[in-house]
Amino acid sequence: MAEIQPPAGAPQSVPALLRRNAAQFGSYPAYREKEFGIWQSWTWSQTLAEIEALALGLLALGLERGDYVAVIGRNRPALYWSMVAAQMAGGVPVPLYQDAVSEEMSYVLDHCGARFVIAGDQEQVDKVIDAQEKVPGIDHILYLDPRGLRKYDHSKLHALADIQAEGRAAHDRLYGELTAREAELTYDSTCVMLYTSGTTGKPKGVVLSNRNIIEASKSSSEFDNLRRDDEVLAYLPMAWVGDFIFSIGQAYWTGFCVNCPESADTMMTDLREIGPTYFFAPPRVFENLLTSVMIRMEDAGKLKKKLFDRAMARAKETGPKILDGKPVSTSERLAYAWDNLMVIGPLKNTLGMSRVRVGYTAGEAIGPEIFDFYRALGINLKQLYGQTEASVFITQQPDSEVRPDTVGVPSPGVELKIGENGEVFYRSPGTFVEYYKNPESTADTKDPEGWVATGDAGFIEEDTGHLRILDRAKDVGKTAGGGLFAPKYVENKLKFYPDILEAVVFGNEREFCTAFINIDLTAVGNWAERNNISYGSYQELAGHPQVLASIQSHVEAVNRSVAEDPMLAHCQVARFLVLHKELDADDGEMTRTRKVRRRIIEEKYADLIEALYDGSTSKYTETEVTYEDGRKGKISATLEIRDAATVEVAGERMAAE
């Protein structure tokens, strides 16, 4: 694939885009942040001034060309500015997950060789100071929130505001150097380094150039007609490639406004106040929102519940038709307008999605029922398929071609092909440069012609050109009887139910499939309160007979649904258990992006998996857990193992014998 060159005079870096926006959209809002209950706003001109001051301050501190600058904290304008300031001064920004424990943080800081760390608050500063025992190369720590840090040793600890003040004071002295470094930035200069979630091993540093970020942002913005007057809510981890593309890449390309909520606890309130027009969320967020709606409906009066059920039944037929531009009768439009006035409109307002013009979900497959629910509300929710290595975008769903069972067509500029083993390959202008300090993995993933192995199994529909993803290629297998085994397909169906938070399905080279289930404590706890059922812990509630019966009914309903697909019918779950603890990233069972680490779970819970297959009806187990303060402990439980009814397929009953 020939490399795309920007037009003569076009911005070749994110800082260059910033200067263009300050010139063209100077008085329009670029960032908003809610603090102490009040929204504060910065225009593009003010944003440029803040970033310049910080970049000059970094130069005054001694930042050299090519230095790595780690950024850790929740979504705040100053931390986004820090990443752009680092690049402007010739450095490389490396955002980290704010909920990473010290050990995880130490690995990344050591691997990238960060000399500077910009931290959001005392919690992050403490983790960095702890990491310094293993990572001696950190020269300076800058912090945004000064609370709790007054008595710390400030010889190498600096308030971000003070560094900006130093930068302003040194403007005349250092501006020439800053200008020279910024002028050196090209399309092929490193824009950011983002670390993978480490599903199968240590995280890898993905090097993305200005070419990768700008071309991916440009093509995706044009695909969905994103505009300067769009609004987004920045609440996803700053270390995730999606947040970088939405909150910096696309924001700087189009000039739209990035809004930062006050905290995770106020996110829903802030979402309603902003009313974004462009909204992205992983399936887990949409699942949780739907769970909260269903819980509230269970608590509602009979009349209100009846109105809701009737409105949603009609909306599921009419809403998607209207979104896709399909013919809708006058009576259907009138009924939908009435339902929108009485039920759908107020519900969308409660969800903060009244103004959403373009919505996306990605990261994992979303349950078809969940997807259809939001489309029924008239929310233009679509799926995309992407990776950190692709600067997000591999495929997107065009308007009027939105379906829950595909992830769309190739994004503009992206080429797709399917390998002999069913693995999906792509190449595009967004394709990453390399894995940092890891030429072997780079060569394994990206061939000399630029084709990248995604690690996912799928196929391209001949008639539509849409890509369908089955599962991770390494997770797709065969049952002992030769049937296709694709666990994620079943897990997503299980997670549609509000009381199921997580599911892990087993069955590769086995006679039948089994599953671990995590209950959703919020949904099941609400049910318990409504039914006057007392419980003292997650473990006690997870083992309650009525909860187990409810989960069994869901498993059996999913089995009936799975049986309708001849290709995947062998994935029906014959036996299951409800785990006594939530799968947790701190325990190594999930990544920071909430992806299940299957191999670790298979090793850690080998005794429970064996019990699912040896006919046991219960199993005593002890499990190591990590507490919030980092201490280790153990919890024990005797778990009930249940059989689930399955559906015969081609004369074969998919059940444990």
If you had to describe this structure to a student in words, what would you say it looks like?
The protein has 657 residues and is of the alpha/beta class. Among the domains are: 14-280, 3-Layer(aba) Sandwich (Rossmann fold), CATH 3.40.50.980; 477-653, ANL, C-terminal domain (GMP Synthetase, Chain A, domain 3). The protein is built from 21 helices and 30 strands. The chain has a five-stranded parallel beta sheet with strand order 4-3-5-6-7, with helices on both faces. Strands 12-13-14-15-16 form a five-stranded mixed beta sheet. The chain has a five-stranded mixed beta sheet with strand order 24-25-26-28-27, with helices on both faces. The protein is globular. 49% of the residues are buried.
Keywords:
Rossmann fold; 5-stranded parallel beta sheet; 5-stranded mixed beta sheet; 21 helices; 23% strand
